[in-house]
Amino acid sequence: MSEPLLDIRNLTIEYPTPAGRFLAVDDVSFKIDAGERFGLVGESGSGKSTTILALMRMLRGGIVSKGQMLLNGRDLAQVPDASYRSLRFAEMSLVPQGAMSSLNPVLRIGRQIDDIFEDHGVVHRPKDRIAIIESLLQRVGLPAAVRHRFPHELSGGMKQRVCIAMSIALKPSVILADEPTSALDVMVQKQVLATLGRVQKELGAAVILIGHDMALMAHFVSKLGVMYRGKLVEMGPVKEVFANPQHDYTKMLINSLPTFERRTRAAAADRRSS
Amino acid sequence: MGLLEVRAASVVFHAGRASAKTALHDISLSIGGKTPSITAVVGESGSGKSTLIRLLLGFQNPTLGEVLYAGDNIAALTRGAARKFRREVQAIFQDPFDAFNPFYKIDHPLVTPLRSFGLAASRDEAYARIETTLRSVGLVPENTLGKYPHQLSGGQRQRIMIARALLLDPTVILADEPVSMVDASLRATILDILYELRRDLGISLIYVTHDLTTAYQVADTIVVLHGGQIMEVGAAEKVVHDPRHAYTRALIDAVPSPDPDVAWNLDEDIAPPDAFLAGDTKLALYATEPDRAIASVARPGQTPVTAAEIQRFVALQKVLAA
Question: I want to staple A184 with a disulfide (CB 3.0 to 4.6 A). Which of A177, A188, B27, B61 is the partner?
Fold first, then answer.
């Protein structure tokens, strides 16, 4: 058995508050293999975003009080802040929740992608750099000319795809996607998810998809974890979780999924009585 | 004729001299009247659904066409008729966190409308009425009244929004994405309440949403709006289970099934949204069946129908079936 790509062991994260410490993530452990698609669901405040922000070392005010995070066998806690910067994008990248607000409004898209290479000391001839940026945009289904655009000239779905293009620029081994489609229309959501899935497959990277929509998870990930109040209450292959949910919260999530098969209880009752 | 009617209304926004955007294009709808109904208006961002709500509330004047309430153009109502319109047509908005003034207790937005419309003679009468209404939407008055908005959950606040609308004995309720910001576990409860309003109180509902599944769960008629035009209108059952317009089909295909074993074809290409509009060519609705119509480029020699006619037919069928 080969070593997992990412190994999270007993991760515990707390926030100090005036009323005492608040346990945002409570003893969470999971492993992800190379190229695997892992989904993490839970309602707001369940600790799912905190978990991946800790991975990126982007927690604000939170403290990792216990546990280990191993990426390719390396203990991330031992990496000093200065080198963590070179780890982001290159080994793991984040597709943030609000792509709308995570791009710099005063820089053209091409320049923002360019920054990633500059910051990581990647050297290209200027002509090659442009070709690389254009091919990145094309890989996420955007026209190459988008590099000349400012964020406000793009739609929400296009901005989200720019963020995906940026996340794969340095070919990381794991992409962390934090509700990448939560603000998008259904058709755009499907396109963005398809884009993420396609580039992930091409790259052979693993994906952690964070979200609260169980239906999306059902079709995108192979392994699913359910978080509730900071704890990972259930984890398994996605089909098994759906077929045989163990925790009450998981059952509720599955049962409250909207479908075209049933009407509301009231409407269903009316139909039975008529 | 419907109680609240949109007749051939278009809304055009001008940005400077050169550019104009048609937010709504020749829309006719019919709501309420003898046959109370629930109509869901389904559309993505930019489809014109928010403009439609503003139009129905009289916050936006149509560039062409008119909106009538009880037969009168709402842009030119007498003082008395305008008051009646404001009381009888109520709205429930999307964001239960934004709708309340944080400095007032929750009692304030409930008592004030009763007082200003003269619906309660005394404070005790007002509170009696408020308590009954709160119970009807599943809230416990003792745990709700006297609290500030921040002490209540999103689901509780959205129910208070519904109670506030109900207090005024409305005939029509316009609900703009009422469940999109409510936790999944509470959505079904709120949709149940909305559904029961029509059944038990005869209140007609326009349910505006981006979510075809919840639209299907409550509505009699579904209106699919895209780029300011109606793409398909018909009985909810038909629109969802046998969609005839390509845009409706694309919209339904984009909704992931809650069953992991039902394929979702993530790899297949999706047509760009503009593909369903014929550029600037005017589309018209043509009936495929008595209870459904779809948009197509004008067909000479064939008479177009309006969404209002389809809505009325579906509502009538519903009454006849009961």
Answer: A188
